[in-house]
Design goal:
Layout (H helix, E strand, L loop, with lengths): L1 E3 L2 E10 L4 E9 L8 H18 L4 E3 L5 H9 L17
Parallel strand pairs: 3-4
Antiparallel strand pairs: 1-2, 2-3
Amino acid sequence: MVYKNNKPVVCGFLYSTNSKLALLEYIVSNPKYREDDRQYAIEFLITNIEEFSKSIGVKALFSIGRNNSLMKKHKKLGWYVDEKPSYEIIKRI
């Protein structure tokens, strides 16, 4: 989570596995936070999650995205963003 002046700006969740792969998901930002550095805070969060992941031995991060702005940020930070949409596959049992 990234804070500024004790206010939450953005957070995300890192799910680790028993492999060298981790899942970065649910990046959400505070809708009430509208300062100019909001976009920087999102990039800061992703970059720091990458650094932390490396420090614990993760070799690849995976994420699912629909938000165009967030996908552009990932791409800017060197992530591969598939140009073809993918679909979640769910079965209720």
